[in-house]
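Incident log, structure service

09:12 report received: a user says their structure output differs between two submissions of the same chain.
09:20 pulled the input from the user's history:
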Amino acid sequence: MAIKNFYNLLVLLVVLTSCKKNETQIFTIQGEAQGSTYSIKFVATEENVTKNQIDSLLTAFDLSLSTYRTDSKISKINAGDTSVVVDDFFTETFHLSKQICKETEGLFDPTIGVLVNAYGFGPNRQHKNLNQTQIDSLLNYVGFDKINLNSDNTITKKHNETYIDFNAIAQGYSVDVVVNYLKSKGIENAIVEIGGELFALGKNTIDNKNWIVGVDDPLQMPEERTLIAKVSLENLGMATSGNYRKVMIDEKTGEKFVHIINPKTGLAQKNNVLSATVLSKSAGLSDGYATAFMLMSLEESKLFLQKHPELYVMLLYSDSQNKMQQFTTDNFNLLIKE
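09:34 re-ran on a clean worker, output below:
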């Protein structure tokens, strides 16, 4: 009898373990990447994606596109190495950037790197006082027409001084890379966030609802987090850009310089737009367009959006009374949760 009870218990344990293994649940992977953090949540019956796999993928991404790594492909190209053969990470980012550059008439341009570095926002982070003559000189090396992706996947630059900097789109695109990796593993429902840029794949099927994410208040203090809105997302990428981040102050003049530089004028300056949140079919596109909106006036943004109904946008701006106001497209409004 004791032996029979033992086997009955063993069978019960096997059944319970099997049920637990096949139970649909949300798995979470978190880590550090690109000088920030990442968080991945996916719905599955088993944890068929590991942190090591994600870390390896993001390391490979950095070895292609990070200007903060001297051994990356982009750093070698910027240093003048014409023999570098770029990979799919680089070519896809190149084509996305070229598309956004064309659509924004050059307001988004990854060849801005020479000015990014001069202002002290690049890897060196050593600020220089630039006069107009110096800015005009550096602008000679800025422009998407100054670089070419050849048929053999090498890069040609018209000027050795031209410095390619995909940082305004790369983080968003890295989200898309991770999402595509999850899809390759059979995952259909997930949310991936890297450094604040994210993509909501499918739904949160555990709670039977879309993924809910917040839009940060651009005027919040560093030690706190307050939200302007919560939005309901399904198969959309989201990115936010703002001139309240990465501000540097000239120790001699007290003048503030922001990390978004106008490729046409070479100037790093504020306008009244405090932040731009963009939703689109990919986090990479959202990231690039969010940067461009920070260089447009509110009216210019509205005119641009009339031609681009595929974009969902929230712009937070300061009015003439220095009070924060909000402009949202109709399609964005439909996603806001009360």
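09:41 both user submissions now match this output. Likely a transient worker issue. Closing.
09:42 reviewer note: DSSP finds ten helices and 15 strands in the chain. The domain at 25-337 is CATH 3.10.520.10 (T-fold).
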